[in-house]
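Review this today:
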Amino acid sequence: MSHTLIANLDARILEAVVAPGEPTFSIPVARAVASLNFTDDQSAEIRKLLDKNNAGTISARDRAKLEGYARVGNFLNWL
C-alpha cells in the first residue's frame, strides 16, 4: 500500500473522529493544539534528512526517522 493511500485513509479516520464541522475543542484547547510544531532543532534535522533523501544517500535508519517526522507532521496538520 502506498504512503499516499495510507495517509489518505488515516486522514479520513481522523476526520471522522474529530468531526471538523462540529465544535469539539474549547477555544483555549484549539489554540494550544494549533500551536503544536516541531522545534527548531527538529526542523533542522528534517532538512538534513530531506537533503540526504534527495541526494539518494539516506540510510534505512534515517529514512525511517524521516518517515516518522512525516507521519507526525501530517498528524499535526490534521489537527
The CA atoms of residues 38 and 44 lie 10 Å apart. The chain has a mean pLDDT of 86. The radius of gyration is 15 Å. The chain is about 75% helix and 0% strand.
